[in-house]
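S.,

Sequence below, as promised.
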Amino acid sequence: MNAGLHIRPAVHLVAALCVVLLSGCASSFDLKPVESAPFLERAVTQVEDDVRVTAAVPDKKETRELFGISLYKKGVQPVWIEIENMTDQPVGFLPFSVDADYHTPLEIASLTRSDEKRQEAEQQLFRNSVNLWVAPGETRSGFIFTNADEGTKAFNVDLFNEERNWAFTFFISVPGLAVDHYDVDFQAIYSEDEVTHYTDAAAFIAALEALPCCVVDSKDENTGDPLNIVIIGEPQDLYYAVIRAGWDETEAVTAASGWKTAASFFTGGAYRYSPVSSLYLFGRKQDVALQRIRENIHERNHFRLWRAPMTFMGETVWVGQISRDIGVRFTRKTITTHKIDPDVDETREFLVENLAYNQVMQKFAYVGGVGEAPIDAPRQNLTGDPYFTDGLRVVLWVAPELTSLDDIEYLDWATP
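The prediction came back faster than expected:
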């Protein structure tokens, strides 16, 4: 949501959404006591201008124990939210901000197999549903039933009153998914004397253009996909930007993720967290891999990032490779490998548009360093897929503050 959006006219619409569960009202639905539930140990709290919001997400096992049914198997993930209003005015809550396709409490009650228990659950859930206002000095808490996400659960909690809006963004790790970058200590990758700190733009541009053109294999013998993106921002800001823009984490390559990948390959289904193969830069495999799937595993955009041994104006610099999958095939060396769209510049520009339209990009520029490869004389990546490029890499600045399209700054370093 645009932080500057005036939402007072939506008050009547908000009142119509009062069926969302915002207090612990589902005891007849076999809801166990929440106060001592283990998942609250992972709760995250944010405070801004006399409003405190705490959120936590139970995993599959915890959800089963709380509600008595396997909501995750139904594609439903409960998110527990507590809102404390320390202002002198009522504060309104927008459940749409948590998940635009959230499930109502009565939908959840309908999952109960017993007709008698279902009727009781429906009556209790409806009777105890509260409106979406938190009065001055009051605290309300309860569950919002969202669509299931594995790994990190990312969501917004948007609040408002007559004078202003609040926009809280949460990233909560939910046990159960072996995300590939969870064990990476980004600050420990380099010692201080290995990092070059740039403050002069010309020197920084020269350093970016002097980086390798492409990723390499594990033996550092063959070059592959072009390193066509640079992102500037701290790890939390980077994470905020890509998750808000709809990118998913990727699972580590394990036997379990291999079976899920194989199943998706043969059925043509979607696997949001499918592993990506390891490519190398700076003597190590990627630090982070993210992807956006489409209808099935054969079609996805994905990119890899490495923390670079440099900063610019005090901010962390990441170098990466982005490509668009148009096919997947099995190989002897890895579980799967991707067949990429040869027009890698198009996928590079997709990332620019994606971050811009989600208001998480502050400015951008282009630099050289990849090396031109025309369409009639393409290069090949490590798996033999051809690609062509204008030879530039895009430089993107991300930050936690939302930036409208009109306010994005373009730096004329190079012209694609």
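The chain has two domains: 8-173, 186-410.

Coffee later?
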